[in-house]
């Protein structure tokens, strides 16, 4: 302790309270240069125990300092392009056109098939009221080979008579001749059992001749082909088949010809009312138009109509997927639509309805 020291430097107690044992044996005088100073009782700072790490022995890349990125200038939002709406409307139009095409196809096919009672191959194989079977006994001539049987029979038929034919599998070909008779040639093709299973029935009178092909239920393997000669003028002709073409030439009558799978060809005829096919071309050459409405139509195939005589009609032509060509002499313009083409207008003085419609094919109306 130093002289004049009032507090113990070790414990901080006042020197006046110390006993003799705690009193130092010698009081050291204060150094003259120190002077009297107060006891410093602040604790001695401890040793720095911060950890010291050795520098790593491997490479550590230095991280470049972050630099402030400049803020891009403000750009106002762009206005929306009208092309999105245009594409949407076009898509909606195509969808509607597709729906209409499906409806048209369904209706056209149904109209043709509904007119053919033998379409399912399950028509009644027995004779209906007034019908007679055309076979080896009732035919005028009969020829037969290993896979073909031909039956020929001639019927009396007046000019004002009605002729009807309903077939299933096989073509129908009709030509004109100058006799008041109808000559019917029936050709059956197939195995012997199939030819015997299929039957041909007829009903005849002075003003009527009808022919019908009938298959047993679940059997339609054989083919029945008709080759017929009719008077040049009749009251009406109604022809129907399912699988086969129809050809009619040089006859004047109210003509209706319909098939499902096959073409329809009318050459130098007059008085056509209807010519239709589902899968096949339709071609008609009219030396004169009839007084009643005329309708030509199909689903898959082209339609060609040529009318040589004067024509007064109201035309309605539609090609869903195809083109329309009309002779300038008729004075009707073709209109292009979003899907397909159409043409409508008055030809001559108008009056008679003329409808020509196809889904997948072209239309040609010529003079």
Summarize the structure.
With 367 residues, this protein is mainly beta. It contains two helices and 22 strands. Among the domains are: 145 residues, no CATH class; 100 residues, no CATH class.
Can you tell me about this structure?
- This protein is mainly beta and 367 residues long.
- Among the domains are: 145 residues, no CATH class; 100 residues, no CATH class.
- The protein is 10% helix and 42% strand.
- The protein has 2 helices and 22 strands.
- It has a 22-stranded mixed sheet that branches.
- A hairpin with a 4-residue loop joins β19 and β20.
Query: How much helix, percentage-wise, in residues?
Result: 10-25%
Shape: elongated
Residue-averaged pLDDT: 83
Low-confidence stretches: 115-122
- Pattern of helices and strands: HEEEEEEHEEEEEEEEEEEEEEEE
Distinctive features:
single chain; 367 residues; 22-stranded mixed beta sheet; 22 strands
How are the elements arranged and paired?
Elements: H1 83-114, E1 132-134, E2 141-144, E3 148-156, E4 162-166, E5 172-177, E6 181-189, H2 192-197, E7 199-205, E8 208-214, E9 223-231, E10 233-243, E11 246-249, E12 252-261, E13 264-279, E14 282-288, E15 294-300, E16 303-307, E17 313-321, E18 324-326, E19 334-336, E20 341-347, E21 352-360, E22 363-366
Parallel strand pairs: 4-8, 4-10, 5-9, 5-11, 10-12, 11-13, 12-13, 13-14, 13-15, 14-16, 15-21, 16-22, 17-21, 18-22
Antiparallel strand pairs: 1-7, 2-3, 3-6, 6-9, 7-8, 17-20, 19-20
